[in-house]
Amino acid sequence: MNGRRMRALVLAVLAAVPAALAAQEGAGAGNVAVRLSARGLPGDLVQRVQRIATDAAAHGVPAEPIADKAIEGWAKHVPAARIVAALRAFADRMTEAGAAVRSGGLARAPGSVIAAAAEAMGGGLKPDEVSSVVRAAPTAEEVAPGLSVAASLTAQGLASRQAVTIVVDAMVHKRPMSQLLDLPSVARSMHDQGMSPGEIGEKLLPHHGDHGPGGEHHGDRNDRPPGPDHPASPVHP
User: Rounded to an integer, what distance in angstroms lies between the CA atom of residue 148 and that of residue 145?
Assistant: First the structure.
């Protein structure tokens, strides 16, 4: 095979790649329709959700979280029009969330991570704060729980930057996942004791005292762990 024919073959293969990816995305959206129908969603709503999922997949957004949201809304008897509007907003937010996750160093994030990032941003986290959590997570599997904890703390009234710094500190110091997941409960307990969100945030911040929420020594009082303003280096595989 001469050089010209070889180049033509390579170009043909490269040109076929986007089409193959689009076919895979379309298949994913088709699976969404099957799932929704199996859960009893009416045909008109299934078609509208499928269109949203197909368009989202064409922009690199995973379709499965969109299906999950639709099923959740239908199970809660949310009107179809509100489900569709919420899904469009969620799909847009996942696009932004995907960019934030990639900026944090996770180039090929699973749909669950992108969905968690989108939920966290819907709860008040900024894209750079999402990126900070991604960078600090010891493994890709710990990104989604970390984002959920940060969003939960923010929902309790803590400033998002405080919440993210608390989560990043727990990750950087490699605290057990059980301690990380327990942070919202710790915050609620402090709230029940009459502390304000600002006081809770200060109490949980890594530079507060010599011991953190889990009781471990934090080192020097002035030793500030990476946060939104001081990102850690990514350690994901």
Answer: 5
Interval 158-193: pLDDT, tens:
999 999 999 999 999 999 999 999 999 999 999 999
Instruction: Give the C-alpha distances (Å, rounded to integers) separating 24 from 32, 55, 134.
Output: 13, 13, 27
Share of the chain residues as helix, strand and coil, in percent rounded to the nearest 5: 70, 0, 30
Is residue 122 within 8 Å of residue 93, measured between CB atoms? yes
Q: Which residue has the tokens 């193959």?
A: 20
**CB-count exposure of residue 156 (10 Å: 0-12, 13-18, 19+):** middle
What's the angle, vertex CA 206, arms to CA 202 and CA 208, rounded to 5? Answer: 50
Residue 211, helix vs strand vs coil: strand
Interatomic CA distance for residues 137 and 139, integer angstroms = 5
Exposure pattern of 30-62 as b/e (b: 16+ CB <10 Å)? eebbebbeeeebeeebbebbbebbbbbbeeebb
The per-residue pLDDT for range 72-104, each reduced to its tens digit, is 999 999 999 999 999 999 999 999 999 999 999
Average pLDDT over residues 128-145: 95
Give the distance, in angstroms, between the CA of residue 32 and the centroid of all CA atoms in the same chain: 20
At residue 29, the pLDDT reads 57
3-state secondary structure labels for all residues of 70-134: HHHHHHCCCCHHHHHHHHHHHHHHHHHHHHHHHHCCCCCCCHHHHHHHHHHHHCCCCHHHHHHHH
